Amino acid sequence: MLSDELKAKIRDSFIALKEDMDGFQVRSSQNKMIAEISKTLAGEYDSNKILCVEAPTGTGKTFAYLLSSIPIAKFSKKTLIVSSANVALQEQLLLKDLPKAQKYCTVDFEYTLAKGRSRYVCIRDLINLAQDNASEELPLNTDLLFDEPPNQYQLRALNHLHDDYAAKKWNGEIDDLTKTPETMLWQKIACNRFTCTVKNCEFYQNCAFFKARKKIAQADVIIANHDLVLADLSTGNTVLPDVADSIFIFDEAHHLNTKALSHFSLSTNTEFIKSSLRQAKGLSEQIAKLTEQDPIEIDIKQIDGYLQDLSSLLKSLSFDENVYLFNQGQIDSGIAKISTQLNTLITHTLNKFIILKKSWEDYLKIKPIDKHIASPLNNALGECEQHLINIVELFLSFLRTDDDAKKSPYSRWIEKNISNKKTSYSLCSAQTDISTNLDTLIWSKAAGCVLTSATLSSLGSFDRLNKQLGLVKTQNQYLRLPSPFSFEQVDFVIAKFKAAPQQVYEHTQEVATQLLQRIDPNQGTLVLFASNKQMQMVADLVENKLGPHLLVQGEFSKKGILEKHINLRQKNQASVIFGLDSFAEGVDLKGDNLTHVIIVKLRFNVPTSPIDKTLADYLESQKRNPFMEISLPDASLKLIQACGRLIRTETDTGKITIFDNRLVTKFYGKQLLNALPNYNIVVE
């Protein structure tokens, strides 16, 4: 419950913010958000301490959740973890919002940024790699460690990294480097939980990762991202504080489902299996030679034979753009039979390999070996163990039986890869429903959760979000806040269009013609496309007329396009941005920088990915409608996001135009329009 003291702390924090912060405006929606977060996290409701709150642009949601949740976290001796979906919001929290919150909050707190282990260098590996490979004769077979050993240029770069770290010019984070090493090279020197020896490492006290983890352990507020939270909680919770001792704020929570679906997807490649087994065999032989014992038996020939049989079966499949999707996730019996044999053999190899690794560790305790030999071997053993575990996990997921009729099945598919005229195959398996995972990892354990975004509901309901994330409506709190902006003066124009979006050629030609008629040469315009192909075709048709004032996504970075656009507007010159999904959210162009948003067509998700197709097929098999359950709610959310680019402050003006006549010709058009803010709807 909220004590009088805690209420006073929260209230006084906002009074300090209101009285001192430049441009602060009192908003009833922000006050409502503060109250609901405080009551939910303090346990005043007879429900879970979970709140889903849709807070439109201008609500002031960041300070609402920071200044209400930080005192509660401190008083309850919990850590507040603020998780975002992208780097931009993380940077804003770290460099702008939290320093201000620290200034106004009536309780003292410390904050830090959490990153994944692989963002930090392993100084031991860096030193060993640079030193070992600088000598002419290596004590180990480098084929076990590299596809190609580092060249002299790479070795010099490694030595520079070491010198800068030793001189404290570099903090050991890849993000702090102006020039980053090649990916394959960084993977060899990055921190890795499979190769880390923790306190047994001679560099433990000077380790960049463990220094960062000490800061995390001491922090009251931790800035993270959805990927890190999911990765850490599903691999033992070794970076972030224990879930039960944490309160989570998921900002941009509408991205959480997509992040989770990706995180719980698995794949392995036939060539990767071959190379991993050969690495395991080679390492076994190296250790056997050093310890004077027999190597573990790995029947490479037998495994190669099964892989060849598997490839022959896969070759006969009918691939659609190099992807073959199994119907409802059910693996063909012949493929399943060979995969079972492979899984049995590789699991047996993994078990023997783990025993070998443990015996090697015990051997080193009794008879230490030169670190220039032991360290790279330890790393290779850890890496190989990780590879074998990943392969076995894929096969277990690939072959499991989906026996829960109430849940959609796993999606399973094959990807054909062709490189240097050589064909290999990737076996893939992914969940289409991650609700149980999220409940097990977070919802059932956390001390409290707030999920927020400017667009969290679909068609005026949280039903879609609940289904995606496994939230139960009756067990949590929900809040939809009104926008602080007035939209009545904003025209939402449904353009008179002859061509329907499904008539791709005709629609594209008409889009180009109408754009040239509707774009004001003295204004800033954002044109949002649903497909890259159509965007490029329209750009080709209009670029002669728009010339240097046309900025097309892909020709420059997103940041570069926005900078060029603002520079043109500062000179009172027209600027037109052509963009895709990434420009439909997270773009903040205020005032005269943007006065016209043009939406080329509604963004209905056609099930193209294997996961989406499997889920759609499952719903149809259950006599359910995937369009009404998935496509329409998602299209509504995306339309609101796209429209939200226009009005960013109370003084912004402009109009929105859409080139999609389905809003007036289809039965669902009224639903989409009713879910929009109260624009002035104009049907031409």
Distinctive features:
684 residues, alpha/beta, Rossmann fold, 4 domains, 7-stranded parallel beta sheet, 23 helices, globular, Helic_SF1/SF2_ATP-bd_DinG/Rad3, EC 5.6.2.3
Any overview of this molecule?
The chain is α/β, with parallel strands linked by helices. 48% of the residues lie in helices and 13% in strands. The protein has 23 helices and 18 strands. Mean pLDDT is 91; it is low at 134-139.
What is the H level of CATH, i.e. the homologous superfamily of the largest domain?
P-loop containing nucleotide triphosphate hydrolases
Classify the beta-strand content into a percent band.
5-15%
What low-confidence regions span 5 or more consecutive residues with pLDDT below 50?
134-139
- Bin the helical content: 40-55%
Total strands: the figure is 18
Biggest sheet: strand arrangement: 3-4-2-5-10-1-11
Provide the residue-averaged pLDDT: 91
Query: What class do helices, strands and sheet pairing give?
Result: alpha/beta
Shape: globular
Q: CATH top level of the largest domain?
A: Alpha Beta
Number of helices: 23
The number of domains: 4
Radius of gyration, rounded? 28 Å
Family: Belongs to the helicase family. DinG subfamily. Type 1 sub-subfamily.
EC number: 5.6.2.3
GO molecular function: 4 iron, 4 sulfur cluster binding; 5'-3' DNA helicase activity; ATP binding; DNA binding; DNA/RNA helicase activity; hydrolase activity, acting on acid anhydrides, in phosphorus-containing anhydrides; metal ion binding
Domain Helicase ATP-binding: 16-310
